[in-house]
Amino acid sequence: MELGLITIVSALHDLTSIENSHYELISNLRRYFSVRFITPAEAKYVNIPLIFVASGGTEEMFRNIYDELPQPILLLTDGLHNSLGASLEIQSWIKSVGGISQILHGKPEYLKKRIETLSHIASVYDIIRKSNIGIIGFPSSWLISSDVNYAEVKKKWGINYRNIELSEVSDMLKTVSYDESVRIADKFINSSAGIEEPTREEVIDASKIYLAVKGLCKKNRLDALTLKCFDVLEKHNISGCLALSLLNDEGIIAGCEGDSQSVFSMYLAKLITGETPFMSNPSLIDHETNEVVFAHCTIATSITEKYIIRNHFESLKSVGIQGQIKKGPVTVIKCGGSGLDKYFLSRGEILENLNNSNMCRTQLRIKLHESIDYFFKNPIANHHIIIPGDHTEIIQEFMDTMNCIRIK
Fold it and tell me: What is the pLDDT of residues 320-337, one digit of tens each?
């Protein structure tokens, strides 16, 4: 990894003595990284640019170059020549103007770990601000608290939301290959632990939706999408559950019901952790045990131990997926607010896979670390995202860096 140091130093300090006094910091960094001194204009040519605050009295100098610097801004200081005090002043100013920043200060091993973590955070943010999320068919009418303000989100995250008419799915359906749909359906059936209500032809039809939506992803250069699947079901008598499952298996984040908050949460979770997420409804909550049953009719089969092909729960039509996930640690997350600047986060433990006939097909009973009072007092809408493994530390770090507000 190559670090680029953008050095700011007060004219009151002798440059030679400054360089000599910071020798220990620079030499320790060079034990772990390639280091070179750069200008703000050269920041894009290194893996991670750092603002090296080499002395006090540099606050105004920093403010003059602020607009040239990439976010998030990482301030490196060893504390010598009043550099830590200047860094605190600079950090406070960055926050006051809505910028994203952290201070790097400490022993060599600590700095190494922090730089590696922050490099990952910076790379995730860089991907997000270049990404496109498709809202195919617009949000479902019952998601009255799940909207986002595209302008606010663009300003904070840089991400582009694109509205795509549901009619484009219908148009794309006319072009998909029946033979390819058969191949996909048979592979899906043969890889399953069984098929209950749907017929083979219904699985083939569901595979057509997959090919149609995948075609729209390619056409619109989408990195993630959410589909107003109930409207697809109403118009074509085909659910979107299989399509979204296969897309998530391929690494194309795909959410249900046109939920713009949840698809962002899923996409962010995937980028930060590398794990494939599961979008779900909190369906039952136990106050005494702090447990929640999360359920939905689609899940990426790659994160299941096995799956059974079922029909869609609410309509009893087409295809749904009953997946079973290995017991163990998980992370529950949801980003919300009109600018996606609020979030819920908790580690949890899958205790049981359920088979309740009155819920969506995939059902997980999870014991949460955070209090379930959140769901009753201040929930971020309905859908929540489950990620295999405990990733709360890195997600918390990322959201803190992005100046997001944690809801409990």
Answer: 999 999 999 999 999 999
DSSP codes joined into one string, 207-267: HHHHHHHHHHHHHHT-SEEEE-HHHHHHHHS--SHHHHHHHHHTT-EEEETT-HHHHHHHH
Question: Which of 159-188 are b and which e, b meaning 16 or more Cβ less than 10 Å from the residue's Cβ?
Answer: bbbeebebebbeebbeebeeeebbebbeeb
CA 84 – CA 248 distance, rounded (Å):
45
* Integer Cα distance of 385 and 290 in angstroms: 17
Model pLDDT for residues 75-112, shown as the tens digit of each residue: 999 999 899 999 999 999 999 998 889 999 999 999 99
Task: Decide which of 3.40.50.10940, 3.40.640.10, 1.20.210.10, 3.20.20.140 is the CATH code for 2-128.
Answer: 3.40.50.10940
Q: From 362, 201, 395, select the one nearest 296 (Cα to Cα).
A: 362
Residue 356: both structure tokens together = 């309740």
Q: Which amino acid is at 31?
A: R
When pLDDT is cut at 50, 70 and 90, the band that residue 15 belongs to is low
Region of 222 on the Ramachandran plot (φ > 0 left; ψ -120 to 50 alpha; else beta): beta
pTM of the model: 0.89
Return the CATH fold of 132-406. Answer: L-fucose Isomerase; Chain A, domain 2 (3.40.275)
Which structure tokens are listed for 282?
């909190």
- Written as six digits, the tokens of 217 are 């992803």
